[in-house]
Amino acid sequence: MNILKVVTLSGGLVLALNSCTQKPAKDDQSVTGEQSAATQPATTKLMVDGSYANSDYEKRNEGYDWVGVIVENIDENKISVKIRSRADKKKPTCTLDTEATKVKDGVYQSMLNGKNVVFTFNETSVSIGTENPQDKDALHFYCSGGATIADTYTKTTAPLDAAQMGK
Questions:
Q1: Which of 87, 132, 91 is nearest to 112 (CA)?
Q2: What SS3 state is found at 140?
Q3: Are 94 and 142 in contact (CB under 8 A)?
Q4: Coil, helix or strand for 120?
Q5: Which phi and psi angles does 10 have, rounded to 5°?
Q6: Other CB atoms closer than 10 Å to residue 52's CB: what's the count?
Q7: Cα 114-119-162 angle, rounded to 5 deg
Q8: Interatomic CA distance for residues 30 and 24, integer angstroms
Q9: How far apart are CA 153 and CA 56, in angstroms?
Q10: How do the pLDDT tens digits run along the chain, 167 residues long?
Q11: Which pLDDT belongs to residue 166?
Q12: Of 19, 161, 18, whose CA–CA distance to 84 is shortest?
C-alpha cells in the first residue's frame, strides 16, 4: 500500500513541477509582422463542396443503383445539399434538397421532419446520420424501397454522372 502512495505522490509531484516551468518570453520586437506570419502554421479550411457517392457508384456501368451527394457552399456557414440516386434506368430511389448550417469545422446540421440530421465531412468523405441515433429511421423518408440516405459517401474527383442522375 505504501508503494502505491509513493508512486502516486511522485507522479503528482512530477506533473506539478512540469506545469510550473515557464518558457522564456520571446522578444516580439525583434521579429517583424511579416516574419511572424510566415513562421505561423497555416490553418487549412476543410473544403466540403463537391460531389460524393456511395460505393455502388464505381459499378454504375454494370447497372448498379447508386446514390450521390452534391454539396455547394452558400456562404461561410451554410451549404446546399442535394442527394440523388440513379435515375436513368428506373425511377430514382432517393431524392433530397436541403440546406445545412455549420456547427463546427467539418460538421453541418439540418432539420428534416423535426429531426436533426448531421453531415460530417473529412478530406475524403461525408457521413450522413441523425444527431440522435434513435431518429435514424427518419432518413428512410427520402428514399423508396427501404433505402436510406444514412451512409458514408466518398468524394469524387469529377462531377457525378449527370446523365444518370435524377433531377
A1: 132
A2: helix
A3: yes
A4: strand
A5: -65, -45
A6: 27
A7: 105
A8: 15
A9: 10
A10: 455 444 444 544 444 444 444 444 444 444 444 444 444 455 567 889 999 999 999 998 898 889 999 999 999 999 999 999 988 877 888 999 999 999 999 999 999 999 999 999 999 999 999 999 999 999 999 998 889 999 999 999 888 877 777 65
A11: 63
A12: 161
pLDDT tens digits for range 6-48 = 444 454 444 444 444 444 444 444 444 444 444 445 556 788 9
Residue located via cell numbers 434506368: 89
Query: Which CA distances in Å does 97 have to 67, 76, 79, 166?
Result: 13, 19, 11, 12
Which residue has cell 440513379? 86
Closest CA to 140 of 115, 160, 108, 165: 115
If you ran DSSP here, which 8-state letter would residue 141 be given? T
Cα separation, 167 vs 154, in Å, equals 21
Q: Which string of DSSP letters, residue by residue, matches 92-103?
A: -SBEEEEEEEEE
User: Which set of grid coordinates corresponds to residue 56?
Assistant: 455502388
- β-pairing verdict for 125-130 and 78-85: unpaired
From CA 146, how far away is CA 13, in angstroms rounded?
59
**Does pTM surpass 0.85?**
no
